[in-house]
TrEMBL record:
It comes from the Bacteria. This is DNA utilization protein GntX. Signal peptide: none annotated. Belongs to the ComF/GntX family. Transmembrane segments: none annotated. InterPro entries: ComF/GntX_DNA_util-trans, PRTase-like, PRTase_dom.
Amino acid sequence: MNHPYLSTTLINKVYKRLFLNQCYVCGFKQEGCLCSSCTTFLKRNDHCCDRCASPTLSPLALCGECQKEPPSFSKAIAPFEYEGLCRALITKAKFENQPHLLRPLISQLADHILQQNQPIPKLWSHVPTATSSLIERGFCQTEFMSQLLLKHLRCYHPDLKIELITIERIKANQAQHTLAKRERHKLTHKHFYVPQTPSESVLLIDDVITTGSTVNACAKALTLSGAPNVTVWALARTP
């Protein structure tokens, strides 16, 4: 009898029953990590720019910013607006060392991707966390997102295989959330380096798209390294 295997299996079952089969917000016992009542407090980003996912008052092909200066990525997907419950979950996850609170939003992002029948690129990358934030938090939230998102998608696409493309920061800069909008726009592709040469479309993962400067700079670095196309998936977009 494989006692270590049985012990691990039992621990996993207990953990799932105690922590995963309940709403992360109100504690309601159920399948999944966000109940239907709490889900209503997530503001969906239904009306947005088709290119950068910036929230708009009505459906729009391209917002004024994208018409004036198209971003380096071909499309961004962000199912929620960064406010209310969505903002609270992400803030607590990042700044109060509770990364598990990203699980409900990652699950929702996976469902959104599957419902929209979005193509899933084989090459994945994530926005690198600033060194100062990495030291403060002890984890990279975008890397955590990538791992969990892949796990969700493989429930429906068991044969899904991906290759990771690394983006490195080559210039020290402050964490974006500490900067004013004008300062954020100073971030360029010169702050990042891609050691690989991607020959296919790349999926870039981020938690929140605020001004779009970071994902745009990372997408530019990817295209300069050889990627023919970059798609961005994020949890939320700032209104």
